[in-house]
Specification:
There is one protein chain. The chain has helices spanning 19-30, 41-50, 89-96, 115-123, 169-180, 191-211, 216-220, 223-242, 249-262, 269-276, 286-296, 301-322; strands at residues 11-15, 34-38, 52-56, 59-63, 66-68, 79-82, 105-108, 127-140, 143-157, 184-187. It is an alpha/beta fold. It has 2 domains: 3-189, NAD(P)-binding Rossmann-like Domain (Rossmann fold, 3-Layer(aba) Sandwich), CATH 3.40.50.720; 193-317, N-(1-d-carboxylethyl)-l-norvaline Dehydrogenase, domain 2 (Orthogonal Bundle), CATH 1.10.1040.10. Strands 1, 2, 3, 4, 5, 6, 7, 8, 9 and 10 form a 10-stranded mixed sheet that branches. α6 packs antiparallel against α8 (223-242) and α6 (191-211) crosses α10 (269-276). The longest helix is centred in the C-terminal third of the chain and has 22 residues, at 301-322. It is globular and about 50 Å long.
Amino acid sequence: MNPSLHRAPCRIAVVGAGALGSFVGARLAQAGQRVVLIGRPAHVAATLRDGLQVHSAGRVDRVTLDASTELAAVRDADLVLVAVKSADTAAVALQLAPLLRASTWVLSLQNGVDNATALGHALGQPLAVAAAYIAAALPAPGLVQHAGGQGLVMGAITAAGVAQTVGAPPLVELAALFRRAGFEVRLSEQPLRALWDKLIVNCACNAISGLAPSAYGAMAALPAIGELQAAVVREAVAVAQADGVPVSLDEALAALARVAQAMPLQRSSTAQDLARGRPTEIDQLNGHIAQRGAALGVPVPLNHALWALVKLAESQRLPAAAG
């Protein structure tokens, strides 16, 4: 790990600063770190002009931090947080590669299970991954709403994709950095499983929340939706296990229940994307289960149906947004 992470402020760049990346960046800045958000022009302009407004737990904080639309702002960063959409990971990784020092660490805060492979292949250096259990939305440029959760399940892998022990000093220091900012960090020696655990919950929540559209609490209140979500989970667990990932059905169902309890008013990122007429990450969520299920001979009709329905919803919204 870069020894400069031991000092404050260390330099942190958030690439793809939407709702999640902006919330995480704001909390790190409040903890004394030097943070730059790299995001869309309107969000960057509002943040530079007025500061980033963070609505959380009944209070509003106005956080002063740097922001840019240029990826070159990652130069000299000690830590780069990648929060771009999964479909953009490979392209962004290639652009990042010449900008990073050999000592710079990269942390993926993304949905899906393939981002670490794309980042590691392009960057050729160690990186960390985190499954984020944080409910955040970006209702307007420069404004983040945090609806609950500050959990991160974090692990580290080498450029070759080999998991590092949770006792390794680099990972311990990275976890400490986030804990100082108020995040609840659990280290995992099985980072791929941690990402699959999050993927399975997303498969049960995101598409339904986007298609209805509904918040997690309203979904959990309807027994028929609960039965549908449990069936989606069973399919996704079967695919993971067939793919050699030792996930647990009981733990996956318990995690699904916790999401509704901890974030009852939250609507999924898929719902937020559909509402804005933007591409979703459904290909990396239910679409990934559908693809791997077909390859492994595991029937996944519900995940396939949810993927197809969200793709249909996307097709109806994107042309209007483009116009």
